Amino acid sequence: MGLAISKSLKTLLMASKDKPTVAKIHALMILSGIVGHGNSNSKLIQSYSRLGHIECARQVFDKLPQCGVAAWNAMIIAYSRQGAKAEALSLYRRMESEGVRPDSSTYTVVLKACARSSDLRNGEGIWRQAVDHGYGDDVFVGTAALNLYSKCGKMEKAMRVFDKMGRRDLVCWTTMITGLARNGQAREAVDIYRKMRNNGMEGDEVVMLGLIQACTTLGNLKMGLSIHGFMIRKDDLTMDVFVQTSLVDMYAKNGRLEIASCLFRTMLYKNVISWGAMISGYAQNGFAGNALQLMVEMQSSGCKPDSASLVSVLLACSQVGFMKFGKSVHGYIVRRLLHFDCVSSTAVIDMYSKCGSLSSARKAFDQTSFRDSISWNAIIASYGTHGAGEEALSLFHQMRKTNMKPDHATFASLLSALSHSGLVEKGQYWFNVMVNEYKIQPSEKHYACLVDLLSRAGKVEEARELIDSMIIEPGIAIWVALLSGCCNHGKLLIGETAAKKVLELNPDDAGIYALVSNFFASARRWDEVAEVRKIMKKTGMKKVPGCSVMEVKGKLHAFLMEDKSHHEYEEIMQVLEKLDYEMKAIGYVPETEFVLHVQEEEVKENLRIAMKQPSSSPKL
Q: Rounded to two decimals, what is the model's pTM?
């Protein structure tokens, strides 16, 4: 009879939804003498903690005359679920000191608590104790150890544990696949999945999620499509918001925006991460207008953007020079008191700089409370882009005074700034400081900046000597920088070598082919000009027409080469005709040596059209 009552009360405890009900059952258990019977105490502790009353659970635990392992586990689990790792570990240590031997559940829970806070030192110690006590082959304890190493980024150790496991369940395989994907080892994640399938086990939604993330990292669209199709065909796999968002992200990052958008539009429920993934996809693929439009749609739907979404929108604003919208985003961040971290502040600085407002970029930098190297790099690069090399160097000195150590990106920004300002000696000096004082091995980007710096100044012979002294293989950016300098300063011999090197590297940018063609045209090497144009035609490559976008009174205006669709086109042309007349009146003669066409009339006509392309609109 007593056993039946005990079972009934335990069932009631687990079904209770509030503290007063649990307290009444607790009182009845005391009156009935059931307290202390079997695992009733652990059920009582679980019930109090499940409802958030961990203090009451601890009072029950502390009043127990003798605790079995079930009661210890219940209390440790209670603390672990509350995120109170210190209390969970303290109880575990006390349990050991009182001679109560932990079981599989104990080790599993304590390892989970360490994993949750990435406490590798304590976690590894507990894992060793579990192995010593014979739980090394326990699938639950082993999976908890895998999770610990995964969360701490120690995938080599996780793999060793995984390889030694005699039995592996779905959770074990899932932990390994998602851990590898999360730690950037996408290929290994795919390999483990294939082993899992060879063992006759199929993955669930969590496995698919890890694989989708792996495909995103690898850029493996084919496999991503296969996983998506597999999930559609399997009726028992749920396509929840997390899976759908990961698919949107995967398609967007692989450049398949039409599929990403279609999937996004069919989602019944979208969270802030879903919106952010699609906005980021548009921005990173150069579709700034779509990104901005989607941000407006997101707010209209009642979903508040997070920092990641706002950073993507700032990127979109910087791409098209839409400072009014970018300024609104900046204001939104300030008004909403969102965490203005280094990433957000850097995005704001970059946006203002690329929209042409260096003063606003500097103001945003000055208002940033915590500055890391990325923030400093951004503001140094901003001054460099605007041709203010001396100011960029001054900021670099300020950075050093704060004991912030410049990194490879800092020197790349500085050298680029000095290059844009033609500060040759200073560029060479700081390149040497980077190598000799900071012991930073120059990358291709650093060499490209210095080659560009020397080539712009007409010192193409020095630039060529620098290339010959490089300890790494010069890439296309370096040869293009040298070729550009040769074009500008008529250095035909070195330029010919640079042009041939560029063509050997098979560039995929039509603008680079145009530069090579221009160089050969300036040397009157018409056979080579024809050969370059033949390559462009064969590969289907066309020079993208020149396009400029500008913001006037909060509206964007786009101008495309030879496009006459702007509503004030006639007025703009009248202003340009006037400027053309004034330029000729003061003796301006256009340079024609880089024009590819050889017919004199075509040269004149093309020059006339090019000179009249509107780059600003005084009447808008």
A: 0.70
